[in-house]
Amino acid sequence: MEKPPASTISLPTPRVYTVTHASNTYDFRLFSPASVSKATYYIDNNVLRPSAPDVAVRLGHDSSSPIVAAARFHLFHSDFHACIGDPTDAGKDARPAHFEKVEKLSRGLMHSRYGFALDGAKYMWVRFYSGHGEAEAEASALSMGNMRLVQDEGSEGETVVAVYISASYRSVKKKGTLEVAAGTSVDVERFVVASIMGILEKQRRRRAGSVKTPGRENV
């Protein structure tokens, strides 16, 4: 399959993805309104293959699609690393995959914060309970799964880059909704997807902490 090229193209309009459970209990698909029958991204959550990324973001509908971003976890650490590109591709024409640390900045469950730096800019995922603006209008104050990604603009304050809204517990198929702001480059969007899906997968493994997989991170 042809490898997707590196891209710094900015997204002209906000991208809204519906995150749904795949047939595999641990995997997910991200659908855009423009393509409700074929997913834009497939989230391949690995719990059995020690050499593979813990989270692989695949550009396409299923687990055979090419990897465009990934996350790796570490034993007994809340932090993890994410990258743009395919870290499993060692071919001479492969795009180098440089991992960046996604650091958990707070230890409290109610106010989780994860920070990372990408291309010289600083970002932070922040848990929130009450929505602000159209993107967060459907957020439930009772949910602990809502996250807002902000970029530190220094003296100019913060800019919201993405918002993840957790679906109602009554929803069987839908996991949540991810909105990425207009003007976000394709590469940054892919890192955004890898980082938020990494956070969600770590939370799932923490809840299922009694199930241990040799050689993998479960906390």
Q: Care to give the gist of this entry?
A:
With 219 residues, the chain is mainly beta.
Helix proportion: 10-25%
- Distance, first to last CA: 35 Å
Mean pLDDT: 83
The count of helical stretches stands at 1
Computed Rg? 16 Å
Task: Tell the overall outline.
Answer: globular
Beta-strand percent range: 25-35%
How does the major sheet shape up?
12 strands, antiparallel, barrel
Number of strands: 12
**Strand sequence of the main sheet, in spatial order?**
1-2-3-4-5-6-7-8-9-10-11-12
Quaternary class: single chain
Unreliably modeled segments = 1-7, 210-219
User: What is the SS-derived class?
Assistant: mainly beta
Helix-strand string: EEEEEEEEEEEEH
Write up this protein.
With 219 residues, the protein is mostly beta strands. The chain has one helix and twelve strands; from the N terminus they run ββββββββββββα. The chain is 10% helix and 33% strand. Strands 1-2-3-4-5-6-7-8-9-10-11-12 form a twelve-stranded antiparallel barrel. A hairpin with an 8-residue loop joins strand 7 and strand 8.
List the helices and strands and how they pair.
Elements lengths: L14 E7 L6 E4 L9 E5 L9 E5 L7 E7 L6 E5 L15 E5 L8 E6 L2 E7 L19 E6 L5 E9 L7 E7 L5 H22 L12
Antiparallel strand pairs: 1-2, 1-12, 2-3, 3-4, 4-5, 5-6, 6-7, 7-8, 8-9, 9-10, 10-11, 11-12
